[in-house]
Amino acid sequence: RIEEREPRGERVVSDELRRKRVFVGNLSFQTSWQKLKDYMRKIGKVERVDIFENRSGESKGFGYVFRDKE
After folding, report:
1. Half-sphere exposure of 13 (CA within 13 A, CB side)
2. Taking a C-beta distance cutoff of 8 angstroms, is the pair 45, 20 a contact?
3. Which of 12, 44, 49, 66 could join 33 via S-S bond, C-beta 3.0 to 4.6 A?
4. What is the rounded distance in angstroms from the CA atom of residue 50 to the CA atom of residue 47?
5. Residue 69's pLDDT is what?
6. What are phi and psi of 23, to 5 degrees?
7. Measured at the alpha carbon of residue 44, what is the angle toward residues 40 and 46, in degrees to the nearest 5?
8. CA dist., res. 39 & res. 68, Å (int)
9. ∠ CA 14-17-22 to the nearest 5 degrees?
10. Which residue, 49, 48, 52, 47, is CA-closest to 62?
11. How much of the chain, in percent, has pLDDT values that exceed 70?
C-alpha cells in the first residue's frame, strides 16, 4: 500500500509516494485539475493531480501533482 492510516487518523506516506508528488500552492480558485495537469506536463509525465476543495466543492488554492517516475 502506498498510503496507510495511523491509529490516531494521521496519514503515513511512503517514500515512493513522497518522491513522486510535488506540492503546488497559490493556485487560482478557478484552476481545474485538468488545466494544472496539462501545464505540469512541461516538466514530464504526470500521473494525476489532486486539488484540495472545501466542503462545498470550491478549490482551496493548493494541491499535489504526482509525477510518473519512469
Report:
1. 6
2. no
3. 49
4. 10
5. 72
6. -75, 135
7. 65
8. 15
9. 135
10. 52
11. 80
How big is the CA angle at 53 (ends 47 and 57), to the nearest 5 degrees? 115
Look up the pTM and report it.
0.74
Tell me the β-bridge partners of 53: 59
Q: Is residue 10 predicted with pLDDT exceeding 70?
A: no
Give percent of the chain with pLDDT exceeding 90: 64
pLDDT at 32: 96
Mean pLDDT of the chain: 85
The answer to whether the Cα torsion of 19, 23, 11, 66 is positive or negative is: negative
Please, are residues 37 and 46 in contact by the beta-carbon 8 Å criterion? Answer: yes
